[in-house]
Amino acid sequence: MPWSNDIKMYVCGVTPYSDSHVGHAMSYIYFDVIRRYLKLRGYSVKYVQNLTDIDDKIIDRASRLNIPVGELAGKYIDAFFADMDALNILRADVYPRATEEIPKMLEIIQSLVKGGYAYPAKGSVYFRVRSVPDYGKLSHRTLDSMEAGIRIEPGEEKEHPMDFVLWKASKPNEPSWHSSWGPGRPGWHIECSAMSVKYLGETIDIHGGGQDLIFPHHENETVQSESFTGKKPFVKYWMHNGLLRLGEEKMSKSLGNLVTIKEALSRYSSDGIRLFVLSSHYRSPLTYSEEALAAAERGVTRLREAVFSEGGTGEKIDFEPPFRLNFSNAMDDDFNTSQAIAILFDMARAINRFKLAGRNVVPGQQLLLELASVLGLTLRLPAEAPVDIKALEEIIAITGEQIRKAGLRIDIAASVLDVDSAMGLIISLRKHLREARQWQLADDVRKQLDEMGISIEDTSKGTVWKSKR
């Protein structure tokens, strides 16, 4: 790769007005793996990902919920970080927020106006697309073809239909910041230019995002950045991932056809979701289905069993020459994760074959775990979901009240210090209910526990419980 050892990487982030969906997970998993692999190859990567915490959609939803814009954005930013952590996606080096980078945006806009690339109109500022001869180079469009069928909306005061907003004049009851053109807020495109220039410099190595961002977002980001800095290219390598589909349409918040990351993680492991995503090349579209996720989960189980089974005590097998080289060749081929995953399964089959022959496969297991980690796969056993002790205490309180209403004399004075003591008390209460022939109340306790993911079994040695999650 014709790069220096220091790689500057920028990836477009979320607009936090609702829970992130699996389409977001798809994009950030891909770029997480690209970053991990570059580091494996010895590169130093500085990774920046923005957070668009001021936007029409955030303002509209906050207004409907009657809460401050910052409160809504903050809530979903926290939820986004929790989702990324759960998917084993490494944190970016910097997560700049649009509302905290207004001064840099204003600096760029003022420079563009001074240079004739932009113009103010009724408190807003627009970029003058005809000032840039190569506008449309990223999306391979011409200005004439883009203009066809486009008209200037009433009140916009644009010189050309394709001129795009850099600064929006404020509307009543909207958040705003002071500027030379009056109170307002930044347009969508300008924030990425400001953040990439501020944190990564005038030219960056990799810029990532979904294919749906090529036009207009990345097209506009390119021309305003190059016009401000005077440096070309703004980006050496544009990397656009394919879109995740649910049925025939892309998965998106605006369309409402989405599966949230939280919903997916409630049914599948982080490794399963990552394997599902990475089994497709990052440039290709991907269709979400329960069958595909279930198959990925089974694949993770096969890899996990190969890694954590007994390694054998015979002669050691050297797995390095074929498998590490093949893995690197796959990833060097435009980050071909689907081929890299096929190599992991080849390794798993080889480990199982040599193990049956009595050979020592520990080196292969270690290599498989190492290469899997480059793809962000932990291959850990799924952790049991923690039992909610507050919910157990509520069951105890409800059961106690039912016992009193039934006129039964049962001692429920017990100290609840932890899950085991709470479950011990519940099992004791249920035993007394059964002895008093209060079958319905005893069944109600079982159902409440079942809804929590806890099963109880009456055995000859007493009642035992376990978490089903």
Explain what this protein looks like in three dimensions.
The protein has 469 residues and is α/β, with parallel strands linked by helices. It folds into three domains: 6-250, HUPs (Rossmann fold, 3-Layer(aba) Sandwich); 298-374, Anticodon-binding domain of a subclass of class I aminoacyl-tRNA synthetases (Four Helix Bundle (Hemerythrin (Met), subunit A), Up-down Bundle); 389-467, no CATH class. The chain has helices spanning 22-40, 56-65, 69-86, 102-114, 143-147, 188-200, 214-229, 261-267, 270-278, 290-308, 320-332, 337-356, 362-374, 389-405, 419-435, 439-451; strands spanning 6-11, 44-49, 118-121, 124-127, 164-169, 184-186, 204-210, 235-241, 244-246, 249-250, 286-287, 454-459, 462-467. Strands 2-1-7-8 form a four-stranded parallel sheet, sandwiched between helices. Helix 10 crosses helix 12 (337-356), helix 10 (290-308) packs antiparallel against helix 13 and helix 14 packs parallel to helix 15. The longest helix has 20 residues, at 337-356. The mean pLDDT is 89.
What is the count of helical runs? 16
The CATH homologous superfamily of the largest domain: HUPs
Strand-pairing-aware structural class: alpha/beta
Please state roughly what percent of the residues sit in beta strands, choosing from under 5%, 5-15%, 15-25%, 25-35%, 35-45% or over 45%.
5-15%
Main pleated sheet = 4 strands, parallel
Assembly classification? single chain
How many strand segments?
Answer: 13
Order of helices and strands: EHEHHHEEHEEHEHEEEHHEHHHHHHHEE
Q: Can you give the helix content as a percent range?
A: 40-55%
Overall geometry: flat
Mean pLDDT: 89
Strand order of the largest sheet: 2-1-7-8
What's the CATH class label of the largest domain?
Answer: Alpha Beta
Low-pLDDT parts are none
CATH architecture of the largest domain: 3-Layer(aba) Sandwich
Distance between the termini: 45 Å
Instruction: Look up the CATH topology of the largest domain.
Output: Rossmann fold
